[in-house]
């Protein structure tokens, strides 16, 4: 993919408050998952926090949080050089360079390599992440290399390594929120066990009468609070349109 120019104009996000450059259609692009993840950062609780968008792509989640939380300082972490380049441009074009930085790093790299890149232990108050969805061999890879890398891990045990890095970055008492496939919930809970407590799972259903397709999982590092399964978030009403709550999340208007 060539660097963004006038042929790849920015798209309107959050009701026009965020200008977001993304790769061409067919590549990995931010959508509803990103909107739901960004909405999990309540502006009241995230104000003044150090926030990390881990696996940020072009920065949609972290930039949305930076807009909603004017006192938050945000780090976007992305390993793909082209996506990281778009993220840097998005930071500049949205006037957020004073509070948002981009770190180009592999989330699953050894600790020493991550620290050299600037990912320091116990440095994050709120970490938001949309990990790759598939382990090797679990699905047919996209012919678009960047999309394949965004959707799947290259080595077995990738989710465990990813969430281990999350636990390294989040300070004790800090919060993690992730979004994943619904059928990956057991693997997510296994990887979080002993690292995060007070786990709260929100099923995400396409319709009220349909099984969940995503889960939002929230936890606090070191907490001993009990597990909670909370009411589902329903994406679409009977008319096929987004529900009012989800539509508001797309506009950045509701946590």
UniProtKB/TrEMBL annotation:
Q: Which UniProt keywords apply?
A: Methyltransferase, S-adenosyl-L-methionine, Transferase
Q: Where is the Methyltransferase small domain?
A: 38-140
Q: Does the keyword Membrane apply?
A: no
Outline the segment boundaries, as ranges, of region: Disordered: 1-30
Q: Does the keyword Secreted apply?
A: no
Alphabetized SUPFAM superfamilies for the sequence: S-adenosyl-L-methionine-dependent methyltransferases
Which InterPro entries does the annotation name?
A: SAM-dependent_MTases_sf (IPR029063), Small_mtfrase_dom (IPR007848), tRNA_Adenine-N(6)_MTase (IPR050210)
Molecular function GO terms recorded: methyltransferase activity
Q: Which GO terms fall under biological process for this protein?
A: methylation
Q: What is this protein called?
A: Methyltransferase
Q: Which organism is it from?
A: Methylobacterium platani
Question: Which taxonomic lineage is given here?
Answer: Bacteria, Pseudomonadati, Pseudomonadota, Alphaproteobacteria, Hyphomicrobiales
